Amino acid sequence: MAGATTAxxxxxPSASSKYFRKLSATPGQxxxxxxxxxxxxxxxxxxVGTVIYVAFxxxxxxxxxLVNFLDFxxxxxxxxxxxxSFYVSAxxxxxxxxxxxxxxxxxxxxxxxxxxxxxxxxFLPLIMPPFVGAVAMLLLFGRNGTVNLLLNDWFGIKIPFMxxxxxxxxxxxxxxxxxILINLSAALRNIDRAMEEAAQNLGSSGFRLFRRIVFPLAxxxxxxxxxxxxxxxxxxxxxxxxxxxxxxxxxxxxxxxxSIGIADPMGYVISVxxxxxxxxxxxxxxxxxxxKDYATVQRGGGGLAKRQxxxxxxxxxxxxxxxxxxxxxxxxxxxxxxxxATIWSFSPLPDSFTVAHYGRVFGExxxxxxxxLIYASIAGLIxxxxxxxxxxxxxxxxxxxxxxxxxxxxxxxxxxxxVLGIGYLRTFYGVQLPDGTPLATLWIxxxxxxxxxxxxxxLRACYAALQQISVSLEEAAxxxxxxKVRTVRRVVLPLMAGGIxxxxxxxxxxxxxxxxxxxxxxxxxxxxPLAYGLYVFMQSAxxxxxxxxxxxxxxLLVALCTFASHLIIEKSQKAKAAGR
Amino acid sequence: MLRHSxxxxxxxxxxxxxxxxxxxxxxxxxxxxxxxxxxxxFKQAFEKAHPGVTLDVQNRNTxxxxxFVEETKANNQVDVFxxxxxxxxxxxxxxxxxxxxxxxxxxxxxxIGSYPINDPENYYSGFAASGYGIMWxxxxxxxxxxxxxxxxxxLAKPVYHDHVAMxxxxxxxxxxxTIETILQGEGWEQGWRTLKEVSGNFRQITERSFGVPExxxxxQVGFGIVIDxxxxxxxxxxxxxxxxxxxxxxxxxxxxxxxxxxPNKAGAEAFVDYLVSPAGQEVLLEPSIRRLPVNPAVYAKxxxxxxxxxxxxxxGAKVKFDVNxxxxxxxxVDVLYDQTITFQLxxxxxxxxxxxxxxxxxxxxxxxxxxxxVKEARDLVAAMPISEQQASSPEIAxxxxxxxxxxxxxxxxxxxxxxxxxxxxxxxxxxxxxxxKLAR
Lengths: 580, 440
Known about the structure:
- The complex is a heterodimer of chains A (580) and B (440).
- Chain A has helices spanning 2-10, 17-22, 27-52, 67-74, 76-109, 115-121, 132-141, 146-155, 164-190, 193-201, 206-217, 219-235, 238-242, 249-257, 266-289, 311-340, 356-396, 402-411, 417-428, 443-467, 471-479, 484-512, 516-521, 530-537, 544-579.
- Chain A is globular.
- Chain A is built from 25 helices and no strands.
- Chain A has one domain: Orthogonal Bundle (MetI-like fold), CATH 1.10.3720.10.
- Chain B is α/β, with parallel strands linked by helices.
- Chain B has helices at 2-18, 36-49, 62-71, 86-94, 138-143, 173-186, 188-199, 211-217, 228-236, 265-276, 278-283, 323-340, 345-364, 368-382, 388-391, 394-401, 410-438; strands at 27-32, 54-59, 80-83, 98-99, 111-112, 115-116, 125-137, 164-167, 202-206, 223-227, 241-244, 251-259, 292-293.
- In chain B, strands 1, 2, 3, 4, 7, 8, 9, 10, 11, 12 and 13 form an 11-stranded mixed β-sheet that branches. Chain B has a two-stranded antiparallel ribbon with strand order 5-6.
- In chain B, helix 3 runs parallel beside helix 4 and helix 12 (323-340) crosses helix 17 (410-438).
- The longest helix of chain B is centred in the last third of the chain and has 29 residues, at 410-438.
- Chain B starts with a helix and ends with a helix.
- The relative contact order of chain B is 0.13.
- Chains A and B meet through helix 1, helix 3, helix 4, helix 7 and helix 17 of A and helix 1, helix 2, strand 2, helix 3 and helix 4 of B.
């Protein structure tokens, strides 16, 4: 929004404002939209375009053709992959909702000790360091993981948690349910208490109150989270590959793009299909919300009324919360064990424990931690600034083509990291600094790649937050003589704060463990983030323990930052409530 | 947002004018797929031997490394490429991205086993050797009462069904060489038959080489077809794993090359020379590395049980490996394996299981008709969509390289081959099930 402020102030002469109102946008808004478009063009569309245009060229001649898409439709493997991806994504949304709904509802709606801690813990699954997370998960839930070894000893059975498509659904739901949790919680906190009270006065209570009033009002948050889960699962390649499920679309694209020596357009064709599907999913979710008004005028002091639970309710609630947390945090418990384990092989628990792995990574992890913090926070900031600006342009102006900003940003979800990495090298390596260093070797390029990759997360959060704010508040401010810029700064932004923070945290945390684009762009160890350090360790048998130790450090780091931001939300809401 | 891009532009322009003076003297940039456990000891030893020189190690997987060198060739900043897979070096050489350099080292023979150690044109040099073999988790084997395998054919036995893993040949240059070794050693038809019989017992076909030792180490899979040092370094880290070289194995060199237009050519050549010098070769013996030196004299300093391919003639000597044959059909073999095995693994496994069951039943109650059906089923599984001559024909090779000439597209071939295999696996399963009924 910083851009809106400057640009808006510079070009808001009141004489011509009537003329511009006819265009439904102020010059400031137009400039802002153009600025964002240029940014996306430079750092997303052009680099990616230089890579995937191959999808539209004919073999041999290089001329434009659509025959590759015909091949896609005629290949059984791709069609099978397409439906598998679709099924897995849809089911992951269902399972993730089952995990997220109780946590979000219980912690925002009741006086519940440790609500903040639960919000933080419930967020951790999103931060799954590459490779080690997978190993930890297999050591617990795999065919010969802790759970199955014990079950086999006791009852002579094994449960295929991690087999085939259902395994992918299980892992994806655990991994991505925080998207729903965090967005839904933010939305629940934003509901006006008066709505609930009105319903209660009219005799509604209990589940009916939740179903008819509370949940519908929180719908923007839920849809934001659910659509992210769907698209992310559809586009994710790491989890299926870890479980050796290859007949899904994203893994197929990855395998083809990264095989050496083979020049095959199909990997890029699949990328194009992924991008189209992501945009389609976002368009449908926007469609579903159209014509409904979720905004409430009055901002409740701290959202819904929090109430005491009766004793049996308490037991039930704590039981449910603990069970869910235990399930979703299992990978992190496994990671922690692994980081202290000497040897952990075909046994329920490690043979013995040691702190040597931490000793090994302690010296060198400092530079990784520093880089990760710098990269992820700058990327997170870029993302919330862009996210807020795009959400504002889409929801509050009538600029022609404004949705395209949203869709372009969302398309970033579908682009495999390695494609973005190659695109950056191709676009920016030729650009040289005066001393001959290529532009692409600067660490700021890693930051920009991370920001682009994580922009959709922040964007969805900001979008949902703005959807919940009634336009009439802004109109009131403007009627009282405030300029658009002042209205945005004094009214819109403070009301969106919770959503913006949620967006920042999601972008920050996931950027902190991102690897695929980073691996292409890291130019020296001194510029490397944690995920890269982890990768370097995880390529050898002796590196498993140190890798896990680095993974734990990464998770703790992100968890601390998340906890701090939750503290801030809580504080600010308490302050608001007190001021009422 | 505008302010942000202004800030970014400002940042970039400041960097433009204040960019750090790029000290080239003394820095050697190495792109490698080797893990820290391998690169750290070499970095230390090399920097000690050449004071004032720093080795800047950039870890990337082989594919990313090749792509990186290729994409950045216009303004190359990399001096050395250092990795296992010979095919990655072939790709780089083919694209003119390597610089000729003949290391000044003495006592290194022409060949190890039957594989030439150095590129005949001196674009890249072997510095360590590795052989393929079978690695297994001892606890897993004991818990499941599985015998210790000795040879590839053992892994085709029914007891190992669903217990074996391997990396896909299209994803791992060294697995590709193993496949090619079996194909050349046993011939095209028989070779694929063996491969499919073994693959029918697979639990997983992983997409990265290290995925296999990782799965065996953690006990998720019992047996893995891996390159020897994965097993040796796992043993050195304390994992309960064992390893055996089968009778048919190739010993292949891991390589190093100087990149064309290297910013520090002298430093790059010094590093390559160091790797093949006696001092550099000795670093290979460290427990966390455990690769086979290419200098036979260095084995004198190795521990007693260290495999020595120069003495132990069973290692790699049995196979005559023809690089030219391999080169012509590299992509065809990889894609054939992926389309008929990797992506059809469920169907192949179902057919294999049915055949095993039928054979077990027939062993108890003989039935001539049943036996004939099982033989038919085995032949159906082994059938390949194209012949050896077709595989190395320019028409098929051209489909994978995106060459200028018009021809069949890769996707078309893939669909044909996959459909061919799938149909036959289903028929094979039906025949084996029929045979099982006859034996009841």
